[in-house]
């Protein structure tokens, strides 16, 4: 029998329950997939807490990889037996198997395991659109990246280095600084002990950076704006510490800054664009140019523990649930 993590109310990790579920046959445009590994992402906590409202009761999780067991009418881009990965709605990836829309599925090359795919599909595609779609970055540019030792951060820093972009990364500890530097960061800043904006100015001859990639939010937005050069771009692509209060006047005060709050869904909504980003990501990973670091593995029934670790900042790299 299939099992899944579900929740009937929003709140702390303890609202999640491991339940037996019925999985039927796929309808038109759907597939039945058996998961081999499931991704754990900070965005999952937003749904659980209610920051991102969803109808209740509901499942959880937006990323997994596994094998297609059956396809419904009209599904042509995948077949039974295909190894696939996905990220995106509807919720329900925290499950051993499920019926879901076929459209988000991306075929996996033989060189990439399901566990690696579950650890990198959301994070890797996020790094892809940040580097390849948000701003015309060029070799020689220097950028600031918050949470540089996290799952997105480690992929981003490696990819940026391949593109000739210098990354200044913020981290919370010496241990995380070593990890970030080993994965492409040219410089790291211990944000709990150093003045981030001052260090950025020191590292850029007083100029600041053209782009800041900020996945933290409320706690870092002031330092992010102060780190930008005139007419720089603040990219708020996550809200781990809460939604940042963006005052339009502060954008002017700091040098006529630009700001954007992008979402991955809008950069992979076009299947052709999604597949192009995924293909570039897969090539880098398959060749070994980008290493996917899996630092935490949890059994899926232990989702409560996993969410506590995630929210407490005890994780580095990518995290996956194994089945």
Automatic annotation (TrEMBL):
It holds the Pfam family ADH_zinc_N. InterPro entries: ADH-like_C (IPR013149), ADH-like_N (IPR013154), ER (IPR020843), GroES-like_sf (IPR011032), NAD(P)-bd_dom_sf (IPR036291), QOR-like (IPR047618), Quin_OxRdtase/zeta-crystal_CS (IPR002364). Residues 11-321 form the Enoyl reductase (ER) domain. The keyword NADP applies. Keywords: NADP, Oxidoreductase. NCBIfam families: PRK10754.1. This is Quinone oxidoreductase.
